[in-house]
Amino acid sequence: MEYISIIVLVVIFVSLMALGVPVAWSLGLSGFITLIVTVATVPSATTIAQRMGTGLDSFSLLAIPFFILAGEIMNRGGIANRLINLAKSITGRLPGGLLYVNVIAAMLFGAIAGSAVAAASAIGGILGPRMEKEGYPKELGAAVNITSSTTGLIIPPSNILIVYSLASGGVSIGALFVAGYLPGLFVGLLLMLTAAVFIKKHNLPPGEMTSWKELGVKFFSAFPSLMLLVVVIGGIVIGIFTATEASAIAVIYTLALSFFYKELRVKDVPAILLKASETTAIVMLLIATSMSMSWVMSSEDIPQSISNALLTLSDNKFVVLIMINLILLFVGLFMDMTPAVLIFTPIFLPVVVSLGIDPIHFGIIMVTNLCIGICTPPVGSVLFVGVGVAKTTIAKIFLPLLPFFLAMVFGLVVITLWPEMTLWLPSLFGL
Amino acid sequence: MNEYNPYTFRSRLDKAVGFLLVVILGIMVLNVTWQVVSRYVFQAPSSFTDELSRYLLIWLGMLGAAYVAGQNDHLAIDILPQKLKGRKKIRLQIFISIVIIAFVLPVMILGGSNLVYITYVLGQKSATLQVPLAYVYAIIPLSGLLVAYYQIADIIELLKNEPAD
C-alpha cells in the first residue's frame, strides 16, 4: 500500500514541476492528491490547510525573515562593499587574486547574511565587471562565484540550518551554527585550491599591490561589520539570546550601520522591507507546503518503509551515509534546498541516529550535500542567479563548473567520513 | 505587453498588500527587539512577544505568498515554458494557473475556511494573548482567495493576447 502512495506522490510532483508549476504549489497539490486517495476529501483539505499554518508557527523560523532582511540591508547599505574591499586587500595582489577575493567575500558575506542567493548576486554583481575588465574568463569567474556563495549556508548564521533544526525536531541551532564553521571554511579552501589550478592555466594577472597600511584601513572600515558576526554568533553560543533574537539584533545593527555610513535613508526602508518580505514569503510558502507534504508522507508510513529498505541493504553507518548522500545528490538536482531538508530529514534522520551518527553531524552533511544541488542544473537557485549576474548561459558555464563541483563532492566525502571536523568545535564550547 | 497602469484594481491591490507586508515585517522586527530589550534592560521578560511574532510570521508568509504569486515570482523550473512559443506557451501558462487554482481552491479556500470555522466554533484561543486562533488561521483562506484572483486575472489576460494561428 505504501508503495502506491509513494508512486502517486512522486509521479504527480515530478510532472507538475517539469511542466513549470511553481515548486511550492506542486508540493502542496501532490500531497493533497495522495491524501485523498485514502482519506475523505473535506478532512484532507482541512488537514493540509492546518499543516500549512502550523508549519509556520515556530519561533525559530522567525530568524529567517530577519536574516534575509539583514542581508538586504547589507547589500544596499554599503556593508557588502566594505567586506569585498577587505577581501580584496587580503588576496587581491596574488595572480588571479580576484577569484580568491570572491571566495573570501562569499564566506564573510554568508557568515553574516546566511543566504547563498544574496551572496551570489551581491558579490557577483560587484566583482564580475572588475574580473571582466582584467581579462578573467567570464565563465570561470561565474563558476567560482556560484560555488563559493554556498559556503555561506554552512558557515553560520545559516537559514537552512535553522530549517534543519526545525525538521529534526529540535537539534540545537547554536550547536549547528558552531559546527558549520570548519566544514564551511574547508569547502571554501578547496574551492580556492581549484581556482588556483585555473589561474595558472589561464595565466591570470596579479592585482594591485596593497600596503599594510591600506590593509589596516580596509580592516578598520569593515570592522563594525565583522563585529556583527561576533555579536550574533557569540551571543547565541554563550546563550545571551536565541538565534531569532540574534537575527533581530542583526537587523537593527545593520540598519544603524547603514544610516551611519549615510548609504541608506529612512525613505529607502519600506522598499527594503518589501523586498525582504517577498523573499521570505517564497521560502515560507515552500516551508508550509513541504511541511504538509512531509505530514502526508509520515501518515502514509513512507519514511518507515524507506528506512527499512535502507537498513536491509546495509547496517554499516558509512555505507548507509554514502547511500543517503547519493540519494540526496540526486534529489538536489531537481529540488530546492528548503523542501529537500524538510522532507528528507524526517526520513533519514531516524535511520542515521539508530546507527549512532550525531544529528548535528548529519545536518552539516545534508546541507553540504544540497549545496551542490543548488549549483547544478536543471534546478539550482544559486546557479540561476549566478548565471544571470554574469550575463552568461547555463550551457556555457557547465564545463567550467565541473571541476568546482568535484571539489565540493570531495569536501562532502571528507565531511561525511570525518565526523570530528564537524563535532570538534561544538564539543569545545560544550554545545 | 501592457503599460503599467497604477489605477487598475490589480495594481491597487498589489500596493495595498505590499503596504501590509511592510507593516507586518516592521512590527515583527520591533517586537523581537522589544523582547530582547525588555529582558535585559528592564529585567522584565515580555510575555506576549513570542506569540505575537509567531502569528505575524504566519500572516507574513501567507499574505506574502499571495503577493509573490501575483508577481509570478515563486520558484519554478521554467525550462519548458521558456522553450515553447506562441500559442503553445500561452496554453501551458494557462494550464499552470489552473493547477494552482486546483490546489488553492479546495485546500486553502475551502479547507482553510473549514479550519477557521472549526477553531471558531471550538472557541480555541492562544495561550498568552487570548486571541481566537480563528483570526490567525483566517489568513489561509484569504491568501487563497488572493492567489485565485491573481491566477484568474492572468488567465483572462493570456486569453486576450492569444495569437490566432
Supply database-style keywords.
heterodimer, A: 431 residues, mainly alpha, 21 helices, 81% helix, B: 165 residues, 6 helices, 75% helix, elongated
Please explain how this structure is put together.
The complex is a heterodimer of chains A (431) and B (165). Chain A is mostly helical. In chain A, α6 runs antiparallel to α7. The mean pLDDT of chain A is 88. Chain A has helices at residues 2-19, 23-38, 41-55, 63-76, 79-91, 97-113, 116-133, 138-149, 151-154, 159-167, 173-202, 212-238, 243-260, 269-299, 302-313, 317-334, 337-354, 359-373, 381-390, 394-417, 419-428. In chain A, 81% of the residues lie in helices and 0% in strands. The longest helix of chain A has 31 residues, at 269-299. By secondary structure, chain B is mostly helical. Chain B is 75% helix and 0% strand. In chain B, α1 runs antiparallel to α2 (49-70) and α4 runs antiparallel to α6. The longest helix of chain B has 37 residues, at 86-122. The chains are: A mainly alpha (431), B mainly alpha (165). At the A-B interface, α1, α2, α3, α4 and α13 of A face α1, α2, α3 and α4 of B.
Element layout with pairings:
The complex is a heterodimer of chains A (431) and B (165).
Chain A: H1 2-19, H2 23-38, H3 41-55, H4 63-76, H5 79-91, H6 97-113, H7 116-133, H8 138-149, H9 151-154, H10 159-167, H11 173-202, H12 212-238, H13 243-260, H14 269-299, H15 302-313, H16 317-334, H17 337-354, H18 359-373, H19 381-390, H20 394-417, H21 419-428
Helix pairs in contact in A: 1-2, 2-3, 2-14, 3-14, 4-13, 4-14, 5-6, 5-12, 6-7, 6-8, 6-11, 7-8, 7-19, 8-11, 8-19, 8-20, 10-17, 11-18, 11-20, 11-21, 12-13, 14-17, 15-17, 16-17, 16-18, 17-18, 18-20
Chain B: H1 9-40, H2 49-70, H3 79-83, H4 86-122, H5 133-137, H6 139-160
Helix pairs in contact in B: 1-2, 2-6, 4-6
